[in-house]
Design goal:
Length: about 150
């Protein structure tokens, strides 16, 4: 018996069915992943999680491919194998080539183009030690044409 109940996606409760459907549509997944199905036992939790994921990964100025690559790097930095595998799968689904994924996994410092590398490294630093961000970190992003907002 699983420690956490996982909802059956083919017959979810009415109050979470729309979350599962929106997740699949916006993320481009054939089905909702286990972390969403598990959280679906609490409509409040699954709606909150999906809201956060949607605002971070789906919406915004940066392309989703770059965001997924950033999350691969953050997952590696945090040694989260589940998240690393999930975000690598998303990268592949979005068309990121295997050479880029391999470079991302082995050494972010060798990522090209430099703009992508610097954005990914900034994301890792934000996740690891946001208190260490300095003016030079933001200036590096500005040098690539990114705005402060």
């Amino acid at each position: 018996m699983p420690r956490f109940p996982v909802l059956n996606e083919s017959d979810p409760p009415t109050n979470v069915a729309d979350v599962f459907a929106d997740f699949r549509t916006r993320m481009g997944f054939p089905k909702a992943p286990n972390f969403i199905l598990t959280q679906g036992v609490s409509p409040t939790v699954v709606r909150g999680t999906w809201g956060a994921v949607r605002h971070v990964l789906v919406e915004g100025e940066l392309p989703r491919t770059l965001k997924e690559m950033m999350f691969v790097a953050i997952s590696i930095d945090r040694n989260c194998k589940y998240c690393e595998a999930a975000h690598i799968a998303c990268c592949r689904m979005l068309g990121v080539d295997e050479e880029t994924i391999a470079t991302l996994v082995k050494s972010i410092n060798k990522m090209m183009p430099e703009k992508s590398r610097d954005i990914i490294q900034f994301g890792v630093k934000c996740a690891r030690s946001p208190q260490d961000l300095g003016d030079d970190d933001f200036q590096q992003l500005r040098s690539h044409g990114l705005a402060d907002y």
